[in-house]
Write a structure and sequence with these properties.
369 residues; alpha/beta; 15 helices; flat
Length: 369
Amino acid sequence: MEAGIVGLPNVGKSTTFNALTKANALAANYPFATIEPNVGVVPIPDPRLATIQKYIKTQKVVPAALRLVDIAGIVKGASKGEGLGNKFLSHIREVDAILHVVRCFTKAPGGEQITHVDGNVDPIRDIETIETELILADLETIDSALPKAERSAKSGDKEAIARLSVLKKLHPVLNQAKPARGVIASLTDPEEKKVVKSLGMLSSKPVLYIANVDEDDIHGQGEFAQRVRARAAEEKMQVVPICARIESELAPLAEDEQKEMLAMYDMQEPALASLARAAYKLLGLQSFYTAGEKEVRAWTVPVGATAPQAAGVIHSDFERGFIRAEIYSVADLEKYHSEKAIKEAGKMRIEGKDYVMHDADVCHFLFNV
């Protein structure tokens, strides 16, 4: 699962990406770094790891991670190939969620002006520019697919009929310049839901708005950020305010220096920590843990994953030969202070193949291959 950072030119998109992929890179026991020029792995800040380590002494702590793609900048007309439009659209198609950086700052550090591609700062216009390009690209996909779908549906094939039905539902909505996600969320027919995945609708992807604010508005209470909040509320999306310049300065600092700088700005933690957690949640992910003397590690599974599927994240043999799982919660560990005490209190659960994982489960998997 991965998220893509998008935005117009000069909104702080690449600054945000670079800060995210540098955060904790030196101190972490995980290869958090840029994998390719535009792909990085970002740690998910998780205080529960410190709680586990407090009671289970270990040599190494490994947080969960998120793959992040810095997608080529977009300009108006990208759906028709303007600028790096084709590259932008192909990369968007490959990611599972969109992190949309919106310019809410007016000046660069030192007070100099940063030219906006459209001449002035207007976050709602910027949001609509990118959304319109996604909708236009989707409309082009539907227009191309409809004639073939109509021919195929005449055969009576169930999948072909479902495909035509979905295309016909999407077409008028996209024609009204509305995104595909509303239609897709309303589908109830299993065949239609299956078809949707193959269509690759760009405007169906969940969006998290990143309001890139001035350094005197780090909590995003200014007019521009509030307009983004209002827009996000209408769409039932989230907003995370950040000041990309401050975050890029914070990211490489040692912990004590970071704390000093955070106190200067009256911040509890870097905004990038909130952003990473929000992106993780946007993708429908949750963490479970394994804990022992060698390593305490957070593992990532989709919400709704079963115990065997979670075991398979660690190793495919664990899923294939799954017998059962011994599970307790981080809250149990915080209350009883040791696995021995958890067992004695009857809080160590034995779960089978049908168990659905909960966020913050700590697991021991038993398997036989």
